[in-house]
């Protein structure tokens, strides 16, 4: 799949996100929009994965979402990639849905391997999955996405220490480095400081990626995969902008957990031409 | 005496022996420990199966997450640390990554309760059974001696789903059969009786056996039931016994709030009203001291069971 096709899918995914969140008037559009390009690049281009989902995923790359509140982007991409029918996106956050507010295995949604939402747990889980692959001599990688605000949770640093100590080099962690969290800019709420230096000091290979430039992003993801398997876990600071793709949502924490109203939805969708069919 | 013993051992060693045996019989069993290999008796497994053993350091939250992740490829992870750090410290990790996600993790917890002794209340968790049994889908097991702990360790490997296995440090009589098959959720009736039922779990089972001897000498015929599985509770066995005896004493090394006693009380209030007395810690923290002194001071011994039996029989007769 070429870069233009990936961009088109990402535009449709952004439409899906906004329509899902609007429909139930709840959910988290900001970072979902920011990470749309990343998810599309992973699922439509980089990952070896099978939409005929199996929990074990033997011989596949496994993806874990630690910042579970950006479920809209994951659900849209999973549906568009064929894990389940896109019509199911209309059930997001509604009664009896498999598309819970935060992702879970509880209702058996294909593509999800563990519940997330309570923050700071994803890197640990991904380490466990990566150790499982090593025990099984499965050469595929384990990918995990965390938020940057989420790194304020101490468990991440327990995990960082473990992964380096035990040389979990089939693990690639991406940090959604958008600099925003619920109460404001991360620098003001609780500054992460120099994340690259911190991960380096913990013994990780540290890279960065352009999260909202599809061509560059694909190159950066490739570089991350190439850096893995060399004795160190890999972390990628994924530079994204919250709300990317919608001019009045971009670059602010304001749209972290707020749904657009009818008028705002119309204004937003006008900026994102439908490239595939709306669900 | 209704049961005899020839040796005394700690229940944690039963866990260690069971884990080591699983290493040989179950290639998918892996073990994780948070800097307490010696205390949890995991050294034999570590030595024999180093590639399946993960030292996580003093980082229990991370250990629970890694254990959950290991299940994804079909591994059966056994985590080992003290009961306090196996539950309260990591409740949210267990809740989300293990229980809600229904992962096949075995949370193995030593040094539970007052019998941890001199280290004091910071380590003597008395709330763990309550926390764990409140999690949907969690199996909660508290075996009574070395042999039963070993048998339970073997049994939970073949049971799919999250399990909390609680054991301890003190050296106590080994009075259950070495060759027992542990049946999860199946109460073990140690002795038939007609006047009162004593439901006991963990270290209090032996105290119940001692109490029975005293009661017999005083003409009271007590039924003794070992509830090694707190959840799922063997309601059928509980109900059958209380319908026969008409009064109940529960005995556990746990806060009276949220433990075995409350599980039994739920059966009583919903199915068959009979008087019940608790032998448990009365909603307080513990303190430093010798295990046997602590058990006496906090009323977790045979004499307290006897006293509560007399009280509950009196209530039965008056009510």
Automatic annotation (TrEMBL), chain A:
> What InterPro entries does the annotation carry?
THDP-binding (IPR029061), Transketolase_N (IPR005474)
Q: Which CDD domains match?
A: TPP_TK
Keywords tagged on the record = Thiamine pyrophosphate
The record's PROSITE patterns line, in alphabetical order, gives:
PROKAR_LIPOPROTEIN
Q: Which domain of life is it from?
A: Bacteria
Q: Does the keyword Electron transport apply?
A: no
Q: What cofactors are annotated for this protein? A: thiamine diphosphate
Which Pfam family, any one, appears in the UniProt record?
Transketolase_N
Which residue ranges does the record assign to the Transketolase N-terminal domain? Answer: 8-267
**Mind telling me which PANTHER family this protein's record contains?**
TRANSKETOLASE N-TERMINAL SECTION-RELATED (PTHR47514:SF1)
Question: Which family does the record assign?
Answer: Belongs to the transketolase family.
Q: What is this protein called?
A: Transketolase
* Species lineage: Bacteria, Pseudomonadati, Bacteroidota, Cytophagia, Cytophagales
UniProtKB/TrEMBL annotation, chain B:
| Domain Transketolase-like pyrimidine-binding: start-end pairs | 9-174
InterPro entries in alphabetical order: PDH/Transketolase (IPR051157), THDP-binding (IPR029061), Transketo_C/PFOR_II (IPR009014), Transketolase-like_Pyr-bd (IPR005475), Transketolase_C (IPR033248)
Keywords attached to this Swiss-Prot or TrEMBL record, sorted alphabetically, are: Thiamine pyrophosphate
The record's listing under SUPFAM superfamilies reads: Thiamin diphosphate-binding fold (THDP-binding), TK C-terminal domain-like
Name the cofactor(s).
thiamine diphosphate
Pfam families, per the entry: Transket_pyr, Transketolase_C
User: Is the Cell inner membrane keyword given for this protein?
Assistant: no
Family to which the UniProt record says this protein belongs? Belongs to the transketolase family.
Protein name in UniProt: Transketolase
Q: Name the gene that codes for it.
A: tktC
């Amino acid at each position: 799949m070429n870069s233009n096709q990936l961009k088109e899918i990402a535009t449709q995914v952004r439409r899906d996100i906004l329509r899902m969140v609007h429909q139930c008037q709840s959910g988290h559009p900001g970072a979902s929009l920011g990470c749309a390009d990343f998810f599309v690049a992973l699922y439509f281009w980089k990952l070896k994965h099978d939409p005929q989902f199996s929990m074990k995923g033997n011989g596949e790359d496994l993806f874990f979402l630690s910042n579970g509140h950006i479920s809209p982007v994951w659900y849209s991409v999973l549906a568009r990639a064929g894990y389940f029918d896109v019509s199911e996106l209309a059930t997001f956050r509604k009664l009896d849905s498999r598309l819970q507010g935060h992702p879970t295995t509880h209702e058996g949604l294909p593509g999800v391997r563990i519940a997330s939402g309570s923050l700071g747990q994803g890197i640990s889980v991904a380490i466990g999955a990566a150790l499982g692959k090593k025990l099984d001599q499965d050469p595929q990688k384990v990918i995990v996405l965390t938020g940057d605000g989420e790194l304020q949770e101490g468990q991440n640093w327990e995990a960082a220490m473990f992964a380096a100590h035990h040389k979990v080099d089939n693990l690639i962690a991406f940090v959604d480095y958008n600099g925003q969290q619920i109460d404001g800019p991360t620098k003001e709420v609780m500054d992460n400081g120099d994340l690259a230096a911190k991960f380096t000091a913990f013994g990780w290979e540290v890279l960065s990626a352009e999260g909202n430039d599809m061509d560059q992003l694909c190159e950066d993801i490739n570089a991350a995969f190439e850096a893995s398997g060399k004795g160190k876990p890999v972390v990628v600071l994924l530079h994204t902008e919250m709300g990317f793709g919608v001019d009045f949502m971009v670059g602010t924490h304001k749209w972290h957990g707020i749904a657009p109203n009818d008028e705002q939805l119309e204004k937003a969708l006008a900026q994102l031409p439908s490239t595939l069919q709306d669900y | 005496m209704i049961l005899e013993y020839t040796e005394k051992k700690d229940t944690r060693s039963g866990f260690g022996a069971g884990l080591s045996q699983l290493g040989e019989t179950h290639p998918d069993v892996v073990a994780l420990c948070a800097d307490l290999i010696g205390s949890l008796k995991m050294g034999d497994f570590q030595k024999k199966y180093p590639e399946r053993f993960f030292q996580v350091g003093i980082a229990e939250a991370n250990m629970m997450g890694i254990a959950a992740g290991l299940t994804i490829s079909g591994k059966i992870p056994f985590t080992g640390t003290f009961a306090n750090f196996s539950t309260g410290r990591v409740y949210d990790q267990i809740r989300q990554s293990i229980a809600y996600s229904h992962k096949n993790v075995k949370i193995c917890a030593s040094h539970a309760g007052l019998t941890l002794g001199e280290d004091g209340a910071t380590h003597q968790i008395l709330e763990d059974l309550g926390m764990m049994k409140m999690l949907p889908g969690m199996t909660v097991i508290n075996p009574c001696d070395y042999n039963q702990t070993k048998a339970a360790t073997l049994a939970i490997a073949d049971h799919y789903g999250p399990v909390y296995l609680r054991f301890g440090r003190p050296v106590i009589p080994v009075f259950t059969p070495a060759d027992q098959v542990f049946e999860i959720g199946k109460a073990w009736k140690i002795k038939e009786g007609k006047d009162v039922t004593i439901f006991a779990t963990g270290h209090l089972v032996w105290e119940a056996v001692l109490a029975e001897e005293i009661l017999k000498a005083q003409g009271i015929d007590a039924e003794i039931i070992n509830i090694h599985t707190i959840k799922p509770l063997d309601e059928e066995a509980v109900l059958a016994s209380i319908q026969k005896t008409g009064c109940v004493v529960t005995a556990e090394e746990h806060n009276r709030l949220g433990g075995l006693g409350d599980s039994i009380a739920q059966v009583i209030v919903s199915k068959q009203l009979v008087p019940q007395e608790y032998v448990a810690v009365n909603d307080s923290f513990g303190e430093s001291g010798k295990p046997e002194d602590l058990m006496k001071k906090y009323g977790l011994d045979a004499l307290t069971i006897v006293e509560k039996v007399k009280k509950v029989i009196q209530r039965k007769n008056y009510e």
